[in-house]
Design a protein that fits this description.
- 79% of the residues lie in helices and 0% in strands.
- By secondary structure, it is mainly alpha-helical.
- It starts with 10 loop residues before the first helix and ends with a helix.
- Keywords: Coiled coil.
C-alpha cells in the first residue's frame, strides 16, 4: 500500500490522458453541481428560519420573565420602604434580582442582534417574499 497522504496525480503528470467529456456530460455535471448548491442553500436558509423561530420564542419567554421579576422587585422594595430593621439577606436578594435582570436584558440584546442578522440574510429575505 502507498502512503495515505499521497498527493493526487494530475492525469497529464501520470501519463494518463484526461477524461474526455461530451458537452452533454459537462452540462449534466454542471447542473448536478448547481442542484447540490441550491439544496445546501435551502438547508442553510431552513436552519436560519428555524433559529429565528427559536429566538422569537426565547425572547418572548425572557421578556415575560423579566417583566415579572421587575414587578416582584418593585413590590418587594415597596414592602420594605421606610422600614428600619430590614435584614441584609433581604436587601442582598434585591441586588441578586437586579443582577439577574441585568443579565437577562443582556441576553435579550444578544438574541435580538442575532435575530436582526438572520432577518438580513439574503436567503431568508428571498424566502419570505
Amino acid at each position: 500500500m502507498g502512503p495515505i497522504n499521497k498527493p493526487l496525480e494530475r492525469p497529464e503528470e501520470s501519463g494518463k490522458k484526461p477524461e474526455k467529456l461530451s458537452p452533454a456530460q459537462i452540462l449534466e455535471r454542471m447542473q448536478s453541481a448547481q442542484s447540490r448548491l441550491e439544496s445546501e442553500e435551502e438547508k442553510r436558509v431552513d436552519s436560519l428560519l428555524e433559529r429565528e423561530v427559536e429566538c422569537n420564542k426565547t425572547i418572548d419567554n425572557l421578556q415575560a420573565r423579566l417583566e415579572e421579576a421587575k414587578k416582584a422587585l418593585g413590590i418587594a422594595r415597596e414592602s420594605v420602604a421606610g422600614k428600619k430593621n430590614v435584614s441584609e439577606e433581604y436587601t442582598a436578594g434585591f441586588e441578586e434580582l437586579e443582577e439577574t435582570a441585568k443579565q437577562t436584558e443582556d441576553s435579550l440584546r444578544v438574541l435580538r442582534a442575532e435575530l436582526d442578522e438572520i432577518r438580513k440574510d439574503p436567503g431568508v429575505i428571498e424566502r419570505k417574499k
